[in-house]
Amino acid sequence: MGDESTISPKDRFLTVYGRKPVLEALADDGLRVDKVILADTARGPGATEIQRAAKAAGVPVQRASAHRVKVLAGNGKQDQGVLADVVAPRMRALEAALSDRRPPSRVLLLDGITTPANVGMILRTATAAGLDGVIVPRRGVAALDPLVVKASAGVAFRAPVLRCGSAREAAEMLAEAGYGLYALSASAKTTVFDVDLPQRAAFVLGGETAGVGGEVGELVTEWLSIPMPGEVESLNVSAAAAVLAFELVRRAR
């Protein structure tokens, strides 16, 4: 795996941008802000307020070009020339988690979920349910940005996020590590309530419109359904994640 210095910043920090979110992060005693990056074009009372708050919190402020801030924030319209890297203490690379002495036993794998609100709510639910990890690939899933943090009501900072390149890459790594891979499908005969689970299991949550992609689907051990006696075709992916997460809580009790 290499030492700590070789770990991508994206596997250590959640980046928030915009004056208000950065000030909120600096004011939160429960968070550790690694650094603030301020555009060299940022001037006036707003910039002064951020510099003052950063100094009070003992956080270094770096200056960068406005273009660099836009690139780092990944959102040119709303960064307001400032961003902060917030340490996410439970976020790490999936590879590191799987090679741990005690690898996670129950994880969720997000595949093609592009709505930040859904990703945020899934992180909040999984953290509340005490799941060991939520695999959020860097490609094909909504970026872990302020919209995700907001939807999680701030829980995203403390969520057990596991990072990797793509959902397919994650599925391959999980299969190789001996995990059963389960995915939700409305037509599956076996339900989430009666499936026999192995010691280590990963549950794939597919995108809002396409569901679980073919690349991941071909590695699935078993497809599971959520019984719905009412006449509704499917649940929102974050609602389905909640049903699944708390069924795992029930089993653990």
Automatic annotation (TrEMBL):
Keywords: Methyltransferase, Transferase. GO terms for biological process: methylation; RNA processing. Gene3D superfamilies: 3.30.1330.30, 3.40.1280.10. InterPro entries: Alpha/beta_knot_MTases (IPR029028), Ribosomal_eL30-like_sf (IPR029064), rRNA_MeTrfase_TrmH (IPR004441), SpoU_MeTrfase (IPR001537), SpoU_subst-bd (IPR013123), tRNA_m1G_MTases_N (IPR029026). The keyword Transport does not apply. GO terms for cellular component: cytosol. It comes from the Bacteria. Belongs to the class IV-like SAM-binding methyltransferase superfamily. RNA methyltransferase TrmH family. This is RNA methyltransferase. It comes from Amycolatopsis vastitatis.
